[in-house]
Amino acid sequence: MTTQEILSHYWKHQAFRPMQEEIIQSVLLGYDTLALLPTGGGKSVCFQVPALAKEGICIVVSPLIALMKDQVENLQAKGIEAISIVSGMGRREVDIALDNCVYGNIKFLYLSPERLLSELVQERIRYMNVNLIAVDEAHCISQWGYDFRPSYLHLAGLRLLHPNVPVLALTATATAQVREDIQQKLLFKRSNIFQQSFERQNLSYVVQGDENKLRKMLDVIHGVKGSGIVYVRSRRETFEISKYLNQHQISADYYNAGLPAEERSIKQENWKNNVTRVIVATNAFGMGIDKPDVRFVIHKDLPESLEVYYQEAGRARRAKSVCRVAVYQKRPAAIGKEV
Asked: Residue 28 belongs to what H/E stretch?
């Protein structure tokens, strides 16, 4: 099938979103490609469509188990063979999964950067008919690679196993330095960047100064229908503010990296299925979330950078009308200068 036929058959769309087709053509021509598309801009289609258009398997490097699980389930629901190898799987289970990738009909193999350091995984990848290497949320190479996930800095090892296979790196936003870092660490043969406008016309960005943040937060949540996210800076605050919201008859739960993986997964699923209306979280939450009715994202405190703010604010995804609010305990004039 052509790329257009693949899009229509599996995604039921008659046309690509802006820049998707150009990125796909770049990949199909064998060029290493860095794609910057806004959150909700359809980044996954940019590697899934060309991978389906060619013989072989696409290896997807992804940072979070929940993100891999979500994408694998979406592909399987479309009748596409996809698997992920995650922590908690036994050696025999991993062995069988990798054999299916070498000898079976698997089209997408999702792995974390840490899994790629395994000799077993590397040896089996060597025998796979790989048609594309996709690095999802590629900004993590710079954001995390130098700190607590150094395995991100060793992704070039995957290229050495299949030097002629193109790499597609995807992210929502990256500074000039991060863009250069991504291409360097992934051994791009030449610079090749596709960047769409970061404007999201369906989002409304609001900065408000208020001495009583919690009262303002309640006003926003009561005034906007649908589900939402409240971002805070500490794990302790996730618990305290979710408790506060529940005391005010707002269904809320808390999420942070200190919770066991199984508990985080349950909390995320409850929120995605609208069992919980509001999730109060640190920046550990939200990457790759695909939820159509997120109507507000509130930042209780200033994010560490504009790039982080843009990433987190964009998690309203595909809602038609979204209120994006950052509530700071500063004078509005001072905030305006910073933003």
From this structure: helix 20-28
For each of the domains in the chain, give its residue range(s) and CATH number, in order of start: 3-195 (3.40.50.300), 203-338 (3.40.50.300)
Tokens of 5: 């036929």
- Rounded Cα–Cα distance for residues 211 and 106 (Å): 55
Following CA atoms 94, 96, 98, 103 in sequence, which dihedral angle do they give, to the nearest 10 degrees? 180
Lowest mean pLDDT among 2-11, 67-76, 234-243, 303-312: 303-312
| Residue of 60, 108, 115 whose CA lies nearest to 93 | 115
Residue that is written with structure tokens 């979710």 in the block: 242
Tell me the residue length of the chain: 339
Judge contact between 279 and 229, C-beta under 8 A: yes
Contact between residue 294 and residue 219 where contact means Cβ atoms under 8 Å apart: no
Task: State the average pLDDT over residues 132-151.
Answer: 84
Tell me whether strands 108-111 and 130-135 are parallel, antiparallel or unpaired. Answer: unpaired
Residue type, 209: G
pLDDT at 121: 93
Average pLDDT over residues 165-186: 92
| AA letter at 75 | L
Two tokens, residue 90 = 């036994």
Nearest to 57 by CA among 73, 34, 77, 75: 75
Q: Give the rounded distance of the alpha carbon of 251 from its chain centre.
A: 25
The CA distance from 235 to 280, in Å, is 10
Which tokens is 135 given? 């690095």
Which residues fall within 8 angstroms of residue 46, CB to CB, at 6 or more apart?
20, 23, 24, 27, 35, 37, 168, 170
Residues 21-35 have pLDDT tens digits of 999 999 999 999 999
The whole-number pLDDT of residue 288 equals 65
Question: What are the CA-CA distances from residue 134 to residues 52, 112, 170, 180, 291 (Å)?
Answer: 13, 12, 8, 17, 23
Structure tokens belonging to residue 171: 């992210």
Closest to 134 measured CA to CA, from 1, 39, 23, 44: 44
pLDDT of residue 180: 94
